Amino acid sequence: MINDDNAGLSGVDVDELIKAIHGGATLKTLNGISDEVMDELHNMAYAFYQNEKLDEAIALYRFLYIYDFYNAEYAMGIGAILQLKKQYDKAIDFYALAYALSRHDYRPMFYAGECNLMLGKLIQAKECFKIVKEESDEKSLTDKAEIYLNVINERCGDFKSDEEMKNVHGNE
């Protein structure tokens, strides 16, 4: 049992709070925020993104993700903005989260492939695009992945590492 004189927790059943947290509760749930409010905020964040107001968009997507870390679309939104801001390593991290949360949505894997490509990590990019091509049911996505794979294969062949490829091709 936790001491009842915790500062700032007056009126809160701490045991129930801890039980909810252990059960995977989100801040959205704990604060009673409706799906409608979250959807409205998501629509605002996406509108900011579409209008290239990236600072406003990422602030809202981060808020949404903090309040509901199970929603893959919020992690995707953050990843997309970071990709536009050329923060590719960070974008890859958020795409990995989105992919883990939505297992059968291969968009995050595809976009992670693009980020790896921009970082010059061709082997990782190739693996991402290969997964998309082999696993996704979305034809437009698999077609794009196949184009990337063809270009990478034409340029690099079947190297096992980016280092091996650089040793053969140099800094063309």
Strand content: under 5%
SSE arrangement, N to C: HHHHHHHHHH
Rg value: 21 Å
What is the distance, rounded to the nearest whole angstrom, between the alpha carbons of the first and last residues?
Answer: 65 Å
Q: How many strand elements?
A: 0
Under CATH, the homologous superfamily of the largest domain reads Tetratricopeptide repeat domain
Number of domains: 2
> What is the CATH domain class of the largest domain?
Mainly Alpha
| Helix coverage percent | over 70%
Instruction: Please report the number of helical segments.
Output: 10
Which segments are poorly predicted (pLDDT under 50) over 5 or more consecutive residues?
168-172
Query: CATH topology of the largest domain, anyone?
Result: Serine Threonine Protein Phosphatase 5, Tetratricopeptide repeat
In short:
This protein is mainly α and 172 residues long. The protein is built from ten helices and no strands.
Name the features.
72% helix; 172 residues; Serine Threonine Protein Phosphatase 5, Tetratricopeptide repeat
What report would you give on this structure?
- The protein has 172 residues and is mainly α.
- It folds into two domains: 13-103, Alpha Horseshoe (Serine Threonine Protein Phosphatase 5, Tetratricopeptide repeat); 106-172, no CATH class.
- The protein contains ten helices and no strands.
- Helix 5 (72-84) packs antiparallel against helix 6 (88-102) and helix 7 (107-118) runs antiparallel to helix 8.
- The longest helix has 18 residues, at 139-156.
- The radius of gyration is 21 Å and the shape is elongated.
- It starts with 13 loop residues before the first helix and ends with a helix.
- This is CesD/SycD/LcrH family type III secretion system chaperone.
- InterPro entries: T3SS_Ca_resp_chp_LcrH/SycD, T3SS_Ca_resp_chp_LcrH/SycD_sub, TPR-3, TPR-like_helical_dom_sf.
- It holds the Pfam family TPR_3.
- Keywords: Chaperone.
